[in-house]
Design brief:
Elements: E1 11-21, E2 34-42, E3 44-47, E4 52-55, E5 59-63, E6 70-72, E7 76-85, H1 94-97, E8 98-99, E9 103-105, H2 108-120, H3 131-134, H4 137-149, H5 152-170, E10 174-175, H6 182-193, H7 201-208, H8 212-223, H9 227-245, H10 250-256, H11 262-273, H12 277-284
Antiparallel strand pairs: 1-7, 2-5, 2-7, 3-4, 3-6, 5-9, 8-10
Helix pairs in contact: 2-5, 6-7, 9-11, 9-12, 10-11
């Protein structure tokens, strides 16, 4: 699936240069924004759900949003960091469509880009390296508001620099959800643009100009899941974002995602994530 660049809603939350000496050790971190690192000096370890990566000088690293991870640092470690959020509404999310490499070789240009961003925007530095100091609802809302309050030219510059850094990872990216069938592409596009509305198989069949039975078989063959299961996964992902970034009651979150019965929403959320929406909000905060 091709993603038009103009549809990407990238918002820069933080950028800075951090100095550590065996004090960058945080466990089970998970956030609604993506982290990009450039290692300048020293080494540390990034623990991801399925692997551990040694962070080395001269490389760029990326940690996708909502990825639970931990850090381990035993000595000197200096790195640039960039936190990027991909929009509140129905924009296309790069990381939903691609598997990006965790590590890529950086260039001198990448370091200069980050250095210039830090020099021009010192106010975007984190107050502390401890996630509990910045990774919470209040701080998150402040950072998003700060970005939107910037002059247009400044947001354009941030967006351009961020896209350049992301392009290093996209060069080696692998499509995560892919189909060559234009009918299914239309269905996926409709789902993503209308994830906050009730979506029926009848409507998807109309979009694809297929019978309901054939649409379900085709979708299952392409993605290994039914259209309704895919929709539910995407609705729960959007619900997690709303639970983290807003104070909307759980019932209102359900209604905002097109559920007429909030009890059904809670059951579906729990089935997919293993916990209730309210408990998810409590843990994330």
């Amino acid at each position: 699936m091709k993603i038009p660049i103009e549809s990407l809603n990238l918002q820069v939350l933080n950028v800075g240069l951090a100095y550590h000496n065996a004090d960058w050790n945080w466990k089970d971190v998970s956030s609604p924004f993506t982290r990009i690192y450039f290692v300048k000096e020293g080494e540390a370890t990034l623990h991801l759900p399925e692997t551990s990566v040694r962070l080395r000088p001269g490389y760029l690293y990326i940690v996708p949003a909502y990825t639970t991870h931990s850090y381990e640092c035993e000595g000197n470690f200096v790195h640039y960091y960039l936190h990027v959020f991909e929009g509140f509404k129905n924009e296309v999310n790069i990381l939903e469509m691609y598997d990006l490499p965790t590590e890529v070789i950086a260039s001198e240009d990448d370091e200069r880009i980050l250095q210039r961003m830090c020099e021009e925007l010192p106010q975007m530095k984190l107050p502390s390296s401890n996630p509990s100091a910045y990774d919470n609802t209040t701080r998150f809302s402040d950072y998003v508001r700060r970005y939107h309050d910037m002059p247009l030219w400044q947001r354009m510059a941030l967006r351009g620099n961020t896209l350049l850094l992301l392009s290093r990872f996209m060069r080696e990216a692998v499509p995560h959800v892919w189909t060559n069938d234009d009918r299914i592409k239309k269905v996926l596009d409709f789902i993503h643009k209308n994830i906050d509305q009730p979506i029926t198989i009848d409507k998807l069949a109309d979009v694809a100009c297929l019978t309901k039975a054939y649409l379900i078989r085709l979708f299952q063959r392409e993605f290994g899941t039914s259209p309704l299961q895919y929709i539910n996964v995407k609705k729960v992902e959007r619900a997690q974002l709303l639970l983290y970034t807003t104070d909307m009651p759980v019932k209102e979150v359900a209604y905002a995602l097109g559920f007429a019965d909030h009890s059904y929403f809670i059951r579906m959320f729990r089935k997919q994530s293993g916990i209730t929406p309210q408990l998810y909000r409590t843990r994330m905060r």
